[in-house]
Amino acid sequence: MEPTRDYPLFGGAFSAILPPGAIDVSDLRPVPDNQEVFCHPVTDQSLIVELLELQAHVRGEAAARYHFEDVGGVQGARAQQVDSVQTLSSESLALRTYCPEAWVLSGKQQVAKENQQP
């Protein structure tokens, strides 16, 4: 079995640990500059890391939910489910002087893939 690997994102600005077999979708088709997209050929699951624009009207946990729901709406998600929203400790933030808080939302969205019916 292929081991997990530390994969650089956005030109090495940060990285993610990807599961065995994950494929960089940008090797297959164009991906927007604000996204890193990976898929798994066996499970038919995708992982999308997206840089988002600050929305000053929402803060904290509400901001994480806002962006999750916004991305789902733009993609035409048929179903959305938030599993958890957690704050990251300020000590773990490399850019904490510019970004004093960060949140991680884990959830699921049911979205039709490109060229497929919903």
Automatic annotation (TrEMBL):
Q: Which SUPFAM superfamilies match?
A: Mog1p/PsbP-like
**A Gene Ontology CC term for this entry?**
nucleus
Is this entry keyworded Protein transport? yes
What Gene Ontology molecular-function terms does this entry list?
guanyl-nucleotide exchange factor activity; small GTPase binding; sodium channel regulator activity; transmembrane transporter binding
Alphabetically list the UniProt keywords: Protein transport, Transport
Q: Per its UniProt record, what InterPro entries does this chain match?
A: Mog1, Mog1/PsbP_a/b/a-sand
List GO BP terms, alphabetically: heart contraction; protein import into nucleus; regulation of membrane depolarization
User: What's the domain of life for this entry?
Assistant: Eukaryota
Q: Which family does it belong to?
A: Belongs to the MOG1 family.
Name-wise, this protein is RAN guanine nucleotide release factor
Q: Which organism is it from?
A: Oryctolagus cuniculus (Rabbit)
Lineage summary:
Eukaryota, Metazoa, Chordata, Craniata, Vertebrata
User: What would be the name of the gene that encodes this protein?
Assistant: RANGRF
